[in-house]
Structure formats: C-alpha cells, structure tokens
Amino acid sequence: MVNYEEKYRNEALNLTIVEPFNGSLTVKKRSPSNIALVKYWGKRHFQIPQNPSLSFTLNKSFTDTEIEYQYKKEKGLSFDFYFEGEKNTNFEERIGKHLSVLKPFFPFIENLHLKITSSNSFPHSSGIASSASAMSAFALCICSIEKKIFDTLQKKKEYFQKASFMARLGSGSAARSVWPGFVLWGETDFVEGASDELAIPLPGKSDKIFSGIRDAILITSPEKKKISSSAGHGLMKDHPFAEARYKQANENIELLIDALKTGNQNEFIRIVENEALTLHSLMMSSNPGFTLMNEKTWKIINEIRYYREKTGRLVAFTLDAGPNVHLLYLETDKDEILKFIEQKLVVFCDNSRWIDDGIAAP
Ligand code: DP6
C-alpha cells in the first residue's frame, strides 16, 4: 500500500526553491460540498478516520476560491484572507494553522505571499458545512500553484490525489470533495486502493438508477452549529459504543457498495437512514451528550417515511452534523418529488428555504 505522507514529504524536497518572478499570478478553483451516505465520525492520530466513509459530491453547493500569489524573498508564511469580500479573522486563524500543517509538503509557500479570496454559493446561515467545499477548493488552488511553478502534477490522477490528501489535513470530509460522483475515503478490504490518507472515486460502475441521484437540502434552522464537528469527533474517543460503531460502518460500506452496484433500492434506503440515525445517536450518547436535530428535522423525517410507504418511491433521508435534512431521490421522480416538497416539507423549512441539489456527474 502507498504511504502518501512519505511520498509527499519526499516530493517536497524538490519543491523548496522558487525562482523569483515579478508581479502576481492567480489561480482559481471551484469545489462543491458532499453528502456522506456512510459517515465519518471519529478519528485517530491526525485526520485519520476510524472507519471508511462514502459520499457523493454535490453540484450547486460549492465554494469558489482564488489565490493571488507573489514572490517574496524572505521565508515565512504570509497571507491575507477575504471571505465574501471582507477580511475574516476567524477563517484567517484556521487557514493560518492549516498552512503550517501544509508547509512540510509544500515548502514553496514560504516564499510566496498569498491573497486568498473565497465565497460560497450557499448562504452562510444555511447550516451547510462549508469546510468540505472550502478546504477542497483551497487544496486544489495550492496544488495548482505547485503545478504552475514546478511543472509537477501533470497527470490528472496525481493532481487530484494530492489535493485530496491535502484537503483531508484541513477537514476530513473535504478529502472526498475533490472528486465528482460517488467517493470513498478510508481503508476497506473490499476496495483496492482505498486509503485513510486520501479519498478515491468509487471504482467500477454504479447501477444507472443512482447515476443522477438528487439531494434536496431542507434547511430547518439558520443557526450555527452548537458543537463543531471536531469536538464531536473528539467525543468518540471514550465513547462506549465506539468499537461497535466502527464495525457497523465497515459492514455498511460493503453493503452500500453492493447496493449501488446492483441497484438495490431497499438496501440503499435502509443503510443510508441507518447511518444518519446512528450518527445522531452517537452524538446523543456521547459524554457530554448533545443533540443537533430539532422538531422540524423529525417532522420532515416522518413525512418522508410516510410518503415512501404511500407511494413506494425511493426517497431516503440523511443528515449531516446539523438539523438540516437531505432528501435523496431519483432523477426520474423529480417532478413528483418537487410537488411533495412544496406541499409537505417546505412548511418545516426556515423561511421556506431549501436547496435543489444533486450528484455531480463524474
Ligand atoms: C457528520 O470533516 O467536518 O459530516 O475532519 O474535524 O473537519 P473534521 O470533520 P468534518 O466531519 C464531517 C462529519 C460528518 C460526516 C461526514 O461527512 O462523513
């Protein structure tokens, strides 16, 4: 198995000397968020997941990041960060820490001043986790700078793998956002090439029924998360159910991959909803316990269950680390589902807000 950390540390030896250049150059990247079907919850060491996770990358919920870089002679990290046009000190602190983590892999950043500008397609108050799209877009930008200065990462696969590795160091779920389609992050015996250090596109063909899968993101609260994902992951350390959870996630990965390949809709629904509820029960049974769902989350879940019973359509819910509900459905049912959302679900959305998203085709 490849040890990517060692590989990228070795490559870094050739990425130290920047030839001086005048003026500034710019790279620009867009990266979407993703929704996990099998969840990453719990880490060991630094940004290494306790279990494999599987997601699909979205289309409309993305971050745009631009980095303007200038040569500077004296070595040392130097950057400015602007979020949606304004200097943002909170994010700046996070990016500062992240750049220090990246330094051993991209030593050339010490000879550059970076002006980082970032914006999201989704409103900040929507509770959509922006760290996945933001860290992924940022990673793609840094890899593009490496590519431009050193003529490296010419092969697409190499470029995206390194970006995924690097995005992971900023936020675990970001590792999955660099690839479109269904994406796997974390070692598993069932997939060759799967790695804890970076995500890979799910190999092989998924059944065509899932190829245009859609995600209606139903926003139930504008509030910021009460507990950060990092704190939540931390609480898995002494969690009494941790071992059982990691075993379950490994089993669910195998079953879900099989369901995706064979087009088994009932298994898909069962696993996806089991994962969502498990995630939130792990939060509730942490010490201290916490809940991120609200009463609207439950109302929507019940409506989805009832609609499925009544119509037999593939509708499934999943949840992120927050109270929003992701309603998954098939592209072929789009017209009917839009009616269902308008008639039954919009009433539970904050200011009637929901995002009509879907899988980014590979
Ligand atoms: C519930 O990737 O946000 O969304 O690595 O600490 O940044 P950090 O955590 P993060 O955790 C995401 C957790 C999740 C499930 C998932 O996306 O797999």
Terminal Cα span:
25 Å
Global shape: globular
Q: List the secondary-structure elements in sequence, H or E.
A: HEEEEEEHEHHHEEEHHHHEEHE
**How is the biggest beta sheet arranged?**
7 strands, mixed
The CATH architecture of the largest domain can be named as 2-Layer Sandwich
Task: Give the uncertain stretches in residue-range form.
Answer: none
Q: What structural class do helix, strand and pairing data support?
A: alpha+beta
The count of DSSP E runs of length 2 or more, i.e. the number of strands, is 13
Q: List ligands, each type once.
A: ligand DP6
Question: What is the CATH C-level name of the largest domain?
Answer: Alpha Beta
Number of domains: 2
What would the average pLDDT be, to the nearest integer?
96
**CATH fold node name of the largest domain:** Ribosomal Protein S5, domain 2
Helix content: 25-40%
Name the beta content range: 15-25%
Number of helices: 10
Question: What is the radius of gyration?
Answer: 21 Å
Task: Give your account of this protein's structure.
A hairpin with a 5-residue loop joins strand 11 (315-319) and strand 12. The model has no long low-confidence stretch (mean pLDDT 96). This protein has helices at residues 4-12, 89-102, 131-150, 156-170, 174-177, 229-234, 242-262, 265-284, 295-311, 334-345; strands spanning 24-38, 43-44, 48-49, 53-71, 78-83, 86-87, 112-120, 182-185, 199-201, 214-218, 315-319, 325-329, 354-358. It is built from ten helices and 13 strands. It folds into two domains: 4-201, Ribosomal Protein S5, domain 2 (2-Layer Sandwich), CATH 3.30.230; 208-358, Alpha-Beta Plaits (2-Layer Sandwich). Strands 1, 4, 5, 6, 7, 8 and 9 form a seven-stranded mixed beta sheet that branches. Strands 11-12-10-13 form a four-stranded antiparallel beta sheet. It has a two-stranded antiparallel sheet with strand order 2-3. Bound molecules: ligand DP6. Ligand DP6 is lined by residues 36, 39-41, 47, 53, 129, 131, 171-173, 229-230, 233, 279, 320-321.
